[in-house]
Amino acid sequence: ALLLAVLLWAPWWALHGAPLTELSGDQDFQLFLQRNLEFTRKIRGDVAALQRLLCDTLQLCKEDELLLVRQDLDIAQAPLEQCHRRTFQAETCFSQIRAGLRIYHGSLATIQALLPGHAGLVETLQLDMANLSSNIQQQMEDLGLATVTYPTENQDPVPTFSSHFHHQVGGFFILANFQRFLETAYRALRHLTSL
Q1: What main location does UniProt list (predicted)?
Q2: What angle do CA 103, 12, 142 make, to 5 degrees?
């Protein structure tokens, strides 16, 4: 967790590799962006499918109806403030996307427990997330950006809940937060294509 905190809050003031304006014409970089925009879109579709399953199976469909319960839950929300247009830093944005994918990768065990009949979809999603993370790491290395390699064993604890209902609502918010995270990551990648 300390490593994650250092990663998320360390102040990188500049890109260490080529300036982004030089990268915008780089065909390999543009190919990386296009491929991973598609990948991110696929992951978003899988998360949306899980959200529909939670709605159909557990009748957990509307966020505003569950906000009171949310206050009792300890649900991690991965920050992506370095990926917003005003504060955009490619290096820290990529690092934050990778850190967030790692957090949500562990949290999806909660969903697997809630939807045991759809374990295959959760596993596919986790595999896609791991691939997206390694694509970003590879691209960062290619660009000469600083990267952090995470240990392969999952060190982030899976959230625990005091009741079955809290577990269900927690699953709902994990997916809702993850969907918002992916939307921001997608916009950041798209922003890079337009530089």
Answers
A1: secreted
A2: 75
| This prediction's pTM | 0.80
Phi-psi region of 144 (alpha: psi -120 to 50; beta: other; left: phi over 0): left
Residue 152: name the closest of 133, 177, 138, 169 by CA: 133
Number of domains present in the structure of the chain: 1
For residue 9, give the amino acid letter.
W
CATH number at residue 120: 1.20.1250.10
Q: How many CB atoms lie within 10 A of CB 155?
A: 12
pLDDT in tens, 49-80: 999 999 999 999 988 888 888 877 877 678 88
Distance CA 114, CA 119 (A): 9
Q: Is residue 7 domain-resident?
A: no
Alpha-carbon distance of 15 to 21, in angstroms, equals 11
What is the span of the domain harbouring residue 121? 25-193
pLDDT tens readout for residues 7-51: 333 332 233 334 454 555 577 888 888 999 999 999 999 999 999
Contact present, 46 and 125 (Cβ < 8 Å):
yes
